[in-house]
Design goal:
- The protein has eight helices and four strands.
- A four-stranded mixed beta sheet has the order 2-1-3-4, sandwiched between helices.
- The two termini are about 15 Å apart.
- The chain is globular, with a radius of gyration of 14 Å.
- It is of the alpha+beta class.
Length: about 120
């Protein structure tokens, strides 16, 4: 089962959800604004892709942090604390299959390649 993690009002999430719908690929959507993201899940993601990949440094949430707060994110423990406190700083969407991160973000071309077996 494909699980797409994100927040529903995000334009990128809307594009990704629409892509799956148009291509008739069943997914489960996990709203981490509503349900949060567990520390264990964040640790798993960081182990797989690294916290630098997960933290969206172009987001309004990141830019709203002070320089000192941004510079304090120098290890996975600090990154997890930040992402648990401000889920909006996590890049969207995070796409998992069987607990494995297979994609972060949205690109129609990359989705078509990655999920071609599902089409």
């Amino acid at each position: 089962m494909i699980i797409l993690y994100g927040i529903p009002n995000c334009d990128t999430i809307k594009k990704a959800l629409n892509w799956f719908k148009v291509n008739k690929i069943a997914i489960e959507f996990y709203d981490y604004k509503k349900h949060s993201v567990s520390q264990a899940k964040l640790k798993s993601w960081i182990k797989q892709v690294g916290y630098d990949v997960l933290i969206n440094k172009k987001s309004a949430t990141w830019r709203a942090l002070s320089l000192a707060e941004q510079q304090a994110i120098s290890n996975h423990t600090a990154a997890i604390a930040l992402m648990m406190k401000h889920t909006s700083v996590i890049k969207r969407p995070v796409v998992e299959i069987d607990e494995k991160v297979v994609m972060i973000g949205f690109s129609e071309e990359e989705y078509a390649t990655k999920f071609s077996d599902e089409l």
